[in-house]
What we know:
Oligomer: heterodimer
Number of domains of chain B: 1
Largest sheet of chain A: 7 strands, mixed
Largest interface: A-B, 44 and 40 residues
Distance between the termini of chain A: 82 Å
Distance between the termini of chain B: 31 Å
Amino acid sequence: MGQWMxxxxxxxxxxxxxxxATVALGGLAACYPGDITSIEETRVVITVHDQDFDYSSQRTxxxxxxxxxxxxxxxxxxxxxIDCDDDDRIDYDHANDAILVARAVANMDSLGYTEMPWDxxxxxxxxxxxxxxxxxxxxxxxYTYWGCGGYxxxxxxYPPGYGCGYPGYSSTSWEQGTLFIDMLYxxxxxxxxxxxxxxxxxNSVLSNSSNTNRDxxxxxxxxxxxxxxxxxxxx
Amino acid sequence: xxxxxxxxxxxALLVAFSGEAQAQDWWWGITYNMSATASLPGTSDSDGDxxxxxxFRGVGIEARYVPSRGGNLSYGFSGSWNVLNEKTDEIVxxxxxxxSGTQLRYFNSIPLLVNxxxxxxxxGGIRPYAGVNVGTYWIERRADVSIVSIKDDNWHLGWxxxxxxxxxxxxPEVALIANARYNWAFSSGGSGDQKYWGFNIGFMYR
Lengths: 235, 206
C-alpha cells in the first residue's frame, strides 16, 4: 500500500480523477440526444389490415362526402366514440371535408377501385367496400415540476432566511388530432355490425395553422394508402 | 460462465494481494468511446440494426493491474457508456399493421466488464495488445414516435474481444491507449443478442 502512495499520485486520487472525468464527459453525452423539431415530425400513420381478407378481388367502393367527428371522449367515458348526441361531439370545422375525401378517392382510384356514388348505395346495391372517414381530437397536458427556486428574504409568515421562491408546476398543452379512414365490408355484416377490414389512422400534434393541419392530413392519407398498396391493389 | 467465474476470481485475487507486491502497476484510464451497430459488418442481424448511425457519444473508465512491471499480462476491469441514436422515417412492419412516422431511436449500453490482456513489444515502447472482456451489459433500447415512447431494458451477459495499442507519451506514468472492441451481449429478457463495435481512445496513467 505504501508503494502506491509514494509512486506518483495516490491510488484513490488516480481512481477519483478517472471517475470525475468520466462523469463530466458523461454529462456531455446525454442518454437521449436529438429531438423532434417540427409539427410534421409528430405525425404517425398506422395502418391495420386483416391478413385473411382478399382485398384484390374487391372492385367497387363508396364513400360519404362528410368526415364524421367522434364524440368528445370526456362526454362518453368508456363508451363508443361515435355513438353520442350531436351536442357531445368534438368541435370540428368541416371546411376541409371535401378536399380530404377527394384525396381518399384519388388514392382508391389509383389502386384500381371504381367509385359508386354514395347516394346510389342501397341495401340491394352495395359496394364491395365502403370507406368512412372520422376525426378525433384529444387535448394533452404535460406538467413539468421546476421545484423550489430559492431566495433570501421575507415572504409571508416565514422568517427571513432561505425560502422557497416559486415552487410548482408549469404546464404545456397541445391538441392531437387523429383522422381515421375505415374500410368496411358490407357483405360480411352480421347482427347489424359491418366489419372493418382496413384502417388507416393519421395522428399528429395539431398546429395553430389550419392549413398546416390540412396538409398533414392530406400527406397522411397518401402515406396510409402507399404503405398498404401491396395488398390493397386491385388485381 | 466458467470464463466469467475465472475472471472474477482473478480480479478478486489481485485486489486482495496487490498491496503486497513490489513491482506491480495499477494503470487507470479514461477513454472517449465511439460505437456502431449496423453500420459495420458483423452486426447486421435483426437485433443489431436498431440504430444505423455511427455514434460519437460515449465515455469509459479502465483499470488494469500489471502483476509484474513492464510484463506482458494485465488483469482489470472497465465500465463505459455508449449512446447510439438515430432519427429515421423507416416504416415498421408488423404482421397485420404498418407504422410510419419520424422515430427517434436510442441505444444506451453500459458494459461492466472484467478483462485480461496480453501485450506485445518491450517495456517502454509501443505495446500492441489483444485481450478479452467478460461481464454484464445493461442495454436500453427506446423508440420515440410522436408522443409515444416504447422501450425495453435488460441486463445481458456478454463478452468483447479487443485489440489495441498503448503508446508511451514521454513520461513513464502516462500513455495513449486506442482500442477496438466487438461487444456481444447475449439475449436476455426477450431481447435478442445485442452487438456493436466500440472504438475507444484515451489516456492511461499510473
